[in-house]
């Protein structure tokens, strides 16, 4: 039976949120509205160690983090924030800094005005800014600082530090219902209510609603999906998206990817962070790589040329294609800090490194530049395809090195020309 309509390509729904502007100097990072979904991360250094923190911020920024959050938990840490900012400026790293405040943020922002100015955004957790009358007063002090210095705020609710008075009150109300909700549903409601009511309170104080970002973080994938769907339904504040305490390695990567992928596809999320616990010795930048890959896999942003490579099977007992794929992928990532400025559009390039005759030529034709290496028992020849056409065949012991050079030549020819045209 002939189909009556073409199959529509899948694409994330459009976002419809306000737009915040986190700035430092001439660098402005827009969040929400029609801005790209932003990648952010957080240091795990002691902020009192200003040099170590500045170095890690630089590493995260170079890896692709467009905002970087640092812990500001003590007077000693607050005192070092301006020095961290100064060190970054000297290194030419203009990434906006976010101050992560808990419990005593009202005092630190008041007592250390240089810290308040050096930060571009404040993270406020309404669950731990105080109790009773103190809560409103201390929350108000932080909002007043944000308004005074024209800073963005993220009102970030976390189910691990949820406002217990609010939750207890909702539990009491729930017990009086004819048909009480499940405890988890009450917790969802408390998370969403805490975020939105806090944001509305800030607006009532005079805060620009466009400069408010909300988050409701939980550690379960389905819980996150439920909460953000409701959060997105009830408000149009820009949303920070992330699975808190996602975990280590494969578990953290998969859980974050699934949760963020579902919500981003539904048009929810204006800035994302992958909260990955690094393995001993693993670079903190891994969480930035994963966040970027999530967005690139969905097709909503491009950060680095993509490398298509087959997983290998009994037809590819040699590891040559695996080694070449990793070599090319590592090379492209290492070059991107320079290529971003030198070769506009190179981040959208597609490279294929395939391992045998079955899918190799076809996948290589679909890429901008691709190579189909010989599989087990195949002739020792590797056809190279450029812009969908077979360009040449590599043979011998130096296939990997020669293909590496072909990729470099292709980048220069195609994207170097784009730069020359742009400046003509």
TrEMBL record:
One of its GO terms (biological process) is isopentenyl diphosphate biosynthetic process, methylerythritol 4-phosphate pathway. It catalyses: (2E)-4-hydroxy-3-methylbut-2-enyl diphosphate + oxidized [flavodoxin] + H2O + 2 H(+) = 2-C-methyl-D-erythritol 2,4-cyclic diphosphate + reduced [flavodoxin]. Its EC number is 1.17.7.3. The keyword 4Fe-4S applies. Signal peptide: none annotated. Residues 307-408 form the IspG C-terminal domain. Binds 1 [4Fe-4S] cluster. [4Fe-4S] cluster binds at residues 310, 313, 356, 363. Pathway: Isoprenoid biosynthesis; isopentenyl diphosphate biosynthesis via DXP pathway; isopentenyl diphosphate from 1-deoxy-D-xylulose 5-phosphate: step 5/6. InterPro entries: Dihydropteroate_synth-like_sf, IspG_bac, IspG_bac-typ, IspG_C, IspG_TIM, NO2/SO3_Rdtase_4Fe4S_sf. Residues 29-290 form the IspG TIM-barrel domain. Its cofactor is [4Fe-4S] cluster. It is an enzyme of class 1 (oxidoreductase). One of its GO terms (molecular function) is iron ion binding. Keywords: 4Fe-4S, Iron, Iron-sulfur, Isoprene biosynthesis, Metal-binding, Oxidoreductase. The keyword Metal-binding applies. Pfam families: GcpE, GcpE_C. Converts 2C-methyl-D-erythritol 2,4-cyclodiphosphate (ME-2,4cPP) into 1-hydroxy-2-methyl-2-(E)-butenyl 4-diphosphate. HAMAP family: IspG. Belongs to the IspG family. This is 4-hydroxy-3-methylbut-2-en-1-yl diphosphate synthase (flavodoxin). It comes from Caenimonas koreensis DSM 17982.
């Amino acid at each position: 039976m002939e189909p009556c309509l073409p199959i529509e390509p899948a694409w994330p729904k459009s976002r419809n949120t306000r737009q915040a502007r986190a700035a430092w100097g001439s660098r402005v990072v827009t969040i929400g509205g029609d801005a790209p979904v932003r990648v952010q991360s957080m240091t795990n250094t002691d902020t009192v160690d200003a040099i170590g923190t500045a170095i890690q911020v630089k590493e995260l920024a170079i890896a692709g983090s467009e905002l970087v959050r640092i812990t500001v938990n003590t007077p000693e840490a607050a005192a070092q924030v301006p020095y961290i900012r100064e060190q970054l400026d000297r290194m030419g790293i203009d990434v906006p800094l976010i101050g992560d405040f808990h419990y005593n943020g009202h005092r630190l922002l008041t007592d250390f005005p240089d810290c308040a100015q050096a930060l571009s955004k404040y993270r406020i957790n309404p669950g731990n800014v105080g109790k009773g009358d103190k809560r409103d007063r201390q929350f108000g002090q932080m909002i007043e600082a944000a308004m005074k210095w024209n800073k963005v705020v993220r009102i970030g609710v976390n189910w691990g530090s949820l406002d217990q008075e609010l939750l207890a009150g909702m539990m009491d109300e729930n017990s009086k219902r004819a048909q009480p909700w499940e405890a988890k549903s009450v917790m969802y409601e408390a998370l969403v209510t805490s975020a939105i009511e806090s944001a509305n309170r800030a607006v009532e104080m005079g805060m620009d609603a466009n400069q408010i970002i909300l988050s409701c973080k939980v550690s379960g994938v389905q819980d996150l999906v439920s909460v953000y769907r409701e959060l997105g339904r009830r408000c149009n504040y820009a949303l920070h998206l992330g699975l808190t305490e996602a975990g280590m390695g494969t578990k953290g990567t998969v859980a974050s990817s699934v949760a963020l992928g579902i919500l981003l596809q539904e048009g929810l999320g204006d800035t994302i962070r992958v909260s990955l616990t690094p393995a001993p010795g693993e670079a903190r930048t891994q969480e930035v790589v994963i966040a970027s890959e999530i967005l690139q896999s969905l097709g909503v942003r491009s950060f680095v040329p993509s490398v298509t490579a087959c997983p290998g099977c009994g037809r590819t007992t040699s590891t040559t294609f695996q080694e070449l794929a990793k070599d090319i992928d590592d090379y492209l990532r290492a070059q991107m800090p320079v290529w971003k400025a030198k070769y506009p559009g190179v981040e959208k390039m597609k490279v294929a490194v395939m391992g045998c005759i079955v899918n190799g030529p076809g996948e290589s034709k679909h890429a901008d530049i691709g190579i189909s290496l010989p599989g087990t028992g195949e002739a020792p020849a590797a056809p190279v395809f450029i812009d969908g056409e077979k360009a040449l065949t590599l043979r011998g012991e130096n296939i990997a090195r020669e293909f590496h050079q072909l990729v470099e030549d292709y980048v220069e020819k195609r994207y170097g020309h784009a730069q020359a045209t742009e400046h003509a």
